[in-house]
Design goal:
Number of domains: 2
Number of helices: 9
Shape: flat
Helix content: 40-55%
Strand content: 5-15%
Low-confidence stretches: 1-29
Order of helices and strands: HEEHHEHHEEHEEEHHH
């Protein structure tokens, strides 16, 4: 029903132009292969850029450092599963009970003054002076059993434009004490795929423009490009329609069986 793209390519293209035919061993075939696989790479980069994107919703609860940092950038406040130290004390009476109930402690003021007994301080990374902090628990069960908040924190500016991660209690034990979490780094993988997608799209656009402008001088190149585009479209169509057919066919069979049984039951009742 659908053209077999791989079989088509294995048989090769025959390009017709003012200078006659070109077999798949000539430049026309190699460039058509390049165009076809560039389209595949573009599609792959787009899919990976979308699927690897880390997203947060204001109505959900988050516990990992990366997700909480993204949430702070996006909504300018902590997720609903965070309570300040005073709120946790008033509602639960202890850190263990607060953590056991699924809450994190966060939202309290972080004092940015330099401490002589610490090996690092926030002033080495930012000019801002107003910060808040929140707890991150890599091992919640251990924190509950010990009844301690641990050393892992997010420290964020009061205007929510900077977020820092610390896993050594603000640089008390070692330096560096803070790692800057930028919007880009929190989605580094997805952003890298978006950059690759943009580069490939630009290269393809330049190639298509060149082929179009010089289509009279090099007709085989333009014809090869058109055929590569045509078969890439068919390839994408097959990629979408085949899984749909694989799902729809069993569903259709089950539906027909259901209708048949329903009809038989109705006939049996009529006979009775």
């Amino acid at each position: 029903m659908f053209p077999n793209v791989l079989q088509y390519y294995s048989q090769g293209f025959n390009f017709r132009g003012e200078h006659g035919r070109r077999s798949m061993k000539t430049a026309g075939f190699s460039k058509s292969w390049i165009v076809f696989f560039c389209f595949l790479i573009t599609l792959l980069c787009f899919v990976l850029a979308v699927t690897t994107r880390v997203r947060v919703s204001e109505k959900k609860e988050y516990y990992s450092a990366e997700q909480v940092a993204l949430y702070l950038y996006a909504y300018k406040h902590l997720p609903s599963n965070f309570l300040s130290e005073q709120e946790a004390e008033e509602e639960f009476g202890s850190v263990s009970l607060c953590l056991a109930a699924g809450y994190n402690i966060g939202g309290d003021v972080f004092y940015a003054a330099k401490r002589e007994d610490y090996r690092d301080w926030i002033g080495n990374y930012s000019d801002k002076t107003s910060f808040f902090e929140c707890d991150i628990y890599p091992d919640r069960a251990q924190s509950i059993s010990q009844g301690e908040r641990g050393d892992v924190r997010l420290v964020y500016s009061s205007d929510y434009t900077e977020v820092y991660f610390t896993d050594n209690h603000y640089g008390q034990y070692e330096s560096p004490g803070f790692v800057y979490y930028s919007r880009f780094s929190l989605n580094a993988l997805s952003n890298s795929f978006w950059i690759a997608f943009g580069v490939v799209c630009f290269a393809q656009a330049a190639f298509v423009l060149e082929a179009y402008l010089f289509r009279r001088r090099r007709p085989a190149l333009w014809e090869g490009l058109c055929e590569a585009v045509e078969h890439f479209v068919w390839f994408c169509f097959e990629l979408v329609i085949i899984p749909v057919c694989l799902v729809a066919y069993p569903v259709q069979i089950l539906y027909l069986k259901y209708k048949k049984r329903k009809k038989e039951k109705k006939e049996n009742k009529t006979k009775e």
